[in-house]
Design brief:
- Negatively regulates transcription of bacterial ribonucleotide reductase nrd genes and operons by binding to NrdR-boxes.
- Belongs to the NrdR family.
- Its cofactor is Zn(2+).
- The chain is an alpha+beta fold and 153 residues long.
- Helix content is 44%, strand content 20%.
- The protein is built from 5 helices and 6 strands.
- Strands 1-2-3 form a 3-stranded antiparallel β-sheet, with no helix packed on it.
- A hairpin with a 5-residue loop joins β2 and β3.
């Protein structure tokens, strides 16, 4: 581990502790060259699947794009930032737990629609109208009727 102060390559670990959540390790280190101390954290790094777009191109998963889509659909709606963050987290967890190396962008769109349906019906309709490219009023009516149905049927 390089020293952040003098860039020397040799550092000594003085103390190692597991975080309270158990998801990271904290290490206190000392540089053998400049004798300064610093802390490092080790965390598990999971890689998100690559997104395959409609045109066949591939791009890295970007949680900021996901957040932007949700925020656009939820604009001026009474949904807390914590609820949006939780929805993003659930979508990311579903993608990670799938174990897939690639995911079609349509699958992400479907996950977003499910989360929006849970969070806010109006935002769901907004997103669905763009995502599904509604052509006429009948498609809006079908989407509205769909969210009006009791869940589980």
């Amino acid at each position: 581990m390089k020293c952040p102060f003098c860039q020397h390559d040799d550092t000594q670990v003085l103390d190692t502790r597991v975080s309270e959540e158990g998801d990271s390790i904290r290490r206190r280190r000392r540089c053998t060259s400049c004798d300064k101390r610093f802390t490092t954290y080790e965390r598990i790094e999971l890689t998100m699947p690559v997104v395959v777009k409609k045109n066949g191109s591939r791009t890295d998963f970007d949680p900021k794009k996901l957040q932007g889509s949700l925020q656009l659909a939820l604009r001026k709606r009474p949904v807390s930032a914590e609820a949006v963050d939780a929805a993003i987290h659930r979508i990311e967890q579903k993608l990670l737990s799938s174990g897939a190396r690639e995911v079609v962008s349509g699958q992400i769109g479907e996950l977003v629609m499910r989360e929006l349906q849970r969070l806010d019906k109006i935002a769901y309709i907004r997103f669905a109208s763009v995502y599904k490219s509604f052509e006429d009023v009948a498609e809006f009516q079908d989407a509205i009727a769909e969210i009006g149905k009791p869940s589980g049927k």
